[in-house]
Structures are given as C-alpha cells and as structure tokens.
Amino acid sequence: MLIIDEFENQLKKDVGDDNVNGSVSASVIKKNKIVWSNAFGYSDINENILSDSNTIYRTGSITKPFTAFLMMKLVQDGVMELGNPVEVYFPEIRELEGYSDATRITFHQLASHTSGLIREPELEKADSGPIEGWENKVIQSIPKTSFENKPGDKFSYSNIGYGILGLALSRAANEPFTKMIEEKIFKPLNMNNSFFVVPEHKLKNLSQGISGGPFGDGELDMETPKNEHQGRGYKVPNGGIYSTPTDLGKFLMSNMGNTNILEKKYLEIMHTNQTPEKTFHSYGLGFGLYQDNAIAIVEHSGAVRGYSAYFGFEKNYGYGVVIMRNYNWGTTDFNLDPKILLRKLIEYEKNKWKLCSARRAWFS
Questions:
Q1: What integer is the mean pLDDT of 39-52?
Q2: 212 pairs with which residues across the strands?
Q3: What is the DSSP letter of 307?
Q4: How many Cβ atoms are within 10 Å of 30's Cβ, its own excluded?
Q5: What are φ and ψ of residue 83, in 5° steps?
Q6: Are the C-beta atoms of residues 113 and 283 closer than 8 Å to each other?
Q7: With contact defined as beta carbons under 8 Å apart, do 43 and 335 qualify?
Q8: 288-291 and 220-221 beta bridge pairing
C-alpha cells in the first residue's frame, strides 16, 4: 500500500537524518493482523548489529496500559471492583502524606490518574534498585508521597500512583504482579519477546539505549541507559516492560477485541474517558484518548533514558501503529506522525468503501 510505503520511507530517512547510529522499529496493524513491520538502523553500533523485527526496546510508560488491562482482568474474574478503596487490600496506603477518610483512593482513581497524588515520590533514588526490590521501594515511597488535589477532582498524571496500583493488584489477587502480567497477558497473546527482565539468551536482541545528545550536554550517553537495565526501583508497574513492535501489536489487537481475554464491556471502559475533563485529549484506564470529528485514537507513549516508544489504534476502523526507538529525540514526531498515518489509512478505507458502494449501485 502506497501510504505504508511512504511511512516506511519516511522512517528510514528519519533514522539517517538523526545521525546517531540508533534504530527505529515499527509495525502497522489492521484489525487482527500485523500488515507491515520493519526496522531501520543499528540496535548496537558498538557490535555493528542492525535492528530487525526481533529487536527489543524498553517501553517506558506503555507499561501502564498493561497494568490497567490486568486490573480489568481481575475485575472480570471477580477478584476486586474498580470502586474498591485500595486500603482494603493494601493498608500501607494510609501512610500517604495527608491521607484521611476524605482522601481514600480507589483502584479506578489510580488507573485513571485521578487519585490526586503527585507525579513522583520525594524519596531519594526511588526510581533505582533491582527489580526484585520494587515492592519495597513502593512501600518506602508512600510516606514520601503527598496529594496535589482531592481524589476524583481532576486528571493529574502520577507514576507513583501506578506503582501503588501494581502492588495493590498483587495484594488483591495474592499473586506477584509480574507473574500475573506474564501469565494473563504475555503468554495468552504469544508475546514471546516481552519481559520485565530480558533473559540471557535474548540479550543479543536488546537494543543499546542512547541518551544525552540535544537534551543533555550534547554528548551521547550509553552508560546511563545500560545501568538502568539493572533495575528501575518502584517503576515496574508504570515503566518496566521490554518488548518489540510485533509483540505490542499483539497487545493492541487484543485491545481491539480480537481475543477473548477481556470482554468487550471491560475494554470499552478502558477506552472511554474516565476523568472529569471533557476535551479532545483525555484519559481512560491506562490509555490516553484523542478524538476529533474524523478520528478516535486509543494510545500511549513511553520514554525512559535511552528509549522512546508509541502505540495506538483507531477505534472505528481497526488500524494501529507501533513505533519504538533506542534514543530519546529525533526527527520522527511520536505525537504527530502516527496520527497522520492513521488519518491517511482511515481516508483510504472511506474512499474504498465509497468506490465499492458506487460499483454496487452501478451493477444493481
């Protein structure tokens, strides 16, 4: 398809123009099928390794939709309810600075970023440490976390909120959070290149993160992203997943209703605005939402040191796109370019439908 060919050529050109010897991998989904995928540049310039469809990247905040999806799976299974106060399963939340009966937080509020909590805890090195200790980092962060506003009043993006959410889900189900993600999402969807810890036999596919550059002191930094592979502190439920565009495409297809993991009514809750604000940019449960007169996109982006990612799909026509990059800046605009592509694909579908309708009318 010409539209996808143009997108492919643009990504390839962007990687060359960025001139950092990094890589970009991407995929395009239509309903229940990945219709295109490709990769450009080097996943590891030091080892002279070109990126391909198996190249693994950090997803950053794209982890949040997985956490919300797991939550809805537990709701569907009757383990807990969205309106349950988190303290029922996770009493340590009462140690939040300023917590009281007037500021009780629900699962729904954590997942929709309406809990009122600040974005990051005021705990030194909260975002560092081995993955095995992430739960303790969440608990240590709670007394160092305060409220920006009363729960339910407004949308306010909170990474620590999702850290608390992941641990609270674990307590409610009495199972480790990472194990549930693996057993209830990765395995059923055959996401065989998605991990919280990249296993040794897959390390050859892990892209080398590149930080610094235009957003640092001008020097490229490979050491900081490399060190973060050792652990992200409390940031496991909100930024801990590694994956590929193909695997993320499988997760998008599941969110489009192409698997039976979640019933349609639960998917619809996730993909509908759950915040008091009524704007064309809003938030469901784990997903950002963008809607205008022509398009309705369910999406999320992610950025950590050395990696950037985006994925999203259009609700009405079933097209989706994933882009992953092993550096933090670049010519490709992750906020704009995927939307341009989806608009073009939707316009193509509309014109195709009009043409088919005209042909049917001609021969009827």
A1: 94
A2: 220
A3: E
A4: 18
A5: -85, 0
A6: yes
A7: no
A8: unpaired
Could you tell me whether strands 57-58 and 211-212 are parallel, antiparallel, or unpaired per DSSP bridges? unpaired
Q: CA-CA distances (angstroms) from residue 41 to 5, 11, 50, 103, 225?
A: 17, 10, 6, 49, 18
The pLDDT score that the predictor gives to residue 278 is 83
Kindly report, residue by residue over 127-171, the tens digit of the pLDDT: 999 999 999 999 999 999 999 999 999 999 999 999 999 999 999
Backbone angles phi, psi at 218, to 5 degrees: 95, -20
CA distance linking residue 41 with residue 39, whole number of Å? 7
How far are the Cα atoms of 50, 150, 323 from residue 299, in angstroms, in the given order? 28, 26, 12
* E strand or H helix at 38: strand 33-44
The two structure tokens encoding residue 77: 């299974």
d(CA 51, CA 65): 26
Range from 45-59, 112-126, 209-223, 289-303 carrying the lowest mean pLDDT = 209-223
CA distance 282 to 299: 10
